[in-house]
Design brief:
The chain contains 5 helices and 7 strands. The protein is α/β, with parallel strands linked by helices. The protein has a 5-stranded mixed sheet with strand order 1-2-4-6-7. The chain has a two-stranded parallel sheet with strand order 3-5. Strand 1 (3-8) and strand 2 form a beta hairpin.
């Protein structure tokens, strides 16, 4: 799994690809929570290239969302593939997390616009 980070205005955009499974989840958790611990308050996870997620990966999303919520931050997930979105819907994440169809919509939600 590859993790890319890009700062746009005050939003930290984290892009993950391939599979977020039991092997990859600890590294993703460390990076994501490390960003929050380092002061990031607006975090966008772009899942466009993500093809698979299991319960270990889902836990990381939940931990990050809860951590940001407790400190007054914002956490948004965008660009979920239909198969991954279906998993998020089945376990109820779509009711407790902000999940948007595109990076552009997510940046607008944060009050930031995508570069032209």
């Amino acid at each position: 799994m590859q993790i890319q980070e890009q700062k746009q205005a005050d939003v930290m955009i984290v892009t993950i690809d391939d599979h977020l499974d039991t092997a990859a989840a600890p590294g993703f958790e460390q990076r994501l929570l490390g960003l929050i611990d380092g002061g990031e308050r607006k975090v966008l996870v772009d899942c466009g290239p993500l093809e698979y997620v299991n319960s270990a990966g889902l836990k990381v999303f939940l931990l990050a969302a809860k951590k940001l919520e407790t400190i007054g931050g914002q956490f948004i997930i965008c660009s979920l593939a239909p198969s991954v979105l279906m998993i998020f819907e089945m376990i109820g994440f779509t009711r407790i997390m902000k999940i948007l169809p595109s990076r552009e919509e997510a940046l607008r939600e944060f009050g930031t616009t995508a570069p032209a």
